[in-house]
Amino acid sequence: MRADADAHEIERRPIAPPLYLFTGSLAGSTQGFVTVTLGFVLAQRGFTSVAIAGLVGLRLLPETWRVVFGPVLDLSLTPRIWFMLSALAAAACTGLLGFLPLQSADTALLGLLALAMGIFSNICIVAQTAGIAATTAPHERGRIAGWTSGGNLAGVGIGGGIGLWTATHVGTSVSALVIAGWCVLCAWPMLLIRTPRACSAKPLPVVARGLADEVVALASSRRGMLTILSVTLPMGLGAFLGLLPSISGDWHASADLTASTTGVLAGLASVPGCLLGGALCHRRPPQMMLAASSVACALGEIMMALGPRTPLAFVLFTLLNNVLVGVSYATVSAVVYAGLRERASGTIGALLGSLSNVPVVAMTFTLGFVGERAGAAGMMATEAMMGVTAALIYGAMAWLWRPRAAEALAAA
Hints:
single chain; globular
């Protein structure tokens, strides 16, 4: 018995929370490269904002497919293996972008590569989530959410800022290869993690039924339903930040200023916001912190929409909104992690992750069309209004379905 217990413990080895800055950065880097670097470069080459928003949307679309990836991970390889394989594939897709001339004739291939980058990046996220569930206690996950979200948003800054600076000073080909190399580097901490083998010794149908039971249990409980509601509503998305490079001209921002502000500086600004969000979720229910952060994000967007159109204002308001979105993203991750159990962690995490990204993708496409008609101010006002409305809806539902009311309803 003692030997079996020791062997079981050897199978579980967490990684230090700060290392999630690297693993979380991988998906963010591919996103930043598409949204910031390609967004700016394609705008300079005559692509319309609708076409750019469509490309960004394709990179984000697999965020809504994580529910497909989760069961596959739970039923097959370990999180470490899935992460490493997907990281290499995401890096390869990023590097391939460097060999395209980036002309209108390449739109279909650009979209295909952006979609593939999104698929492999999201498999990495699902594998990371499953690893966290298998190696950390629930009370530790709020702080870990800060590190993973900080890595993700810092990665957006690296993939966008360093990517755009390299693209404008050296060339897009070199830029793509640099970000591809960074993706490979970000994968190394996952070599350290150890988790139990998927499926253990049970037959596959038994394991599959267990996964289904966990999903039903989540969707049939008060806490589970509020969790699903909180990640599905468009709260604290910050989707307009992904489109800022294509409209930075409204603030008379140069290519270098756009690259540094929406890239590295934005990534650095988001990290303290993420750590703050993780700390808040360690002390308060993450769902309520998400609703509160959504209102704060809306205020930041309104301030930028009504503020002066100068390069300095562009820098200050962009960094402010990245801090606020950092808080929001950490709360979303904390909501997902709080809903995990070791059993079916990949499936539940993927389901919640997919749901949380449906509004991001929808908002990105929406803002692309709004921007064509109402400009940058209309984009920010639209997202702010929807964020406040969503926070009010969640607050009302949480109050109406508070524990005593739920018990009375069950008794009736």
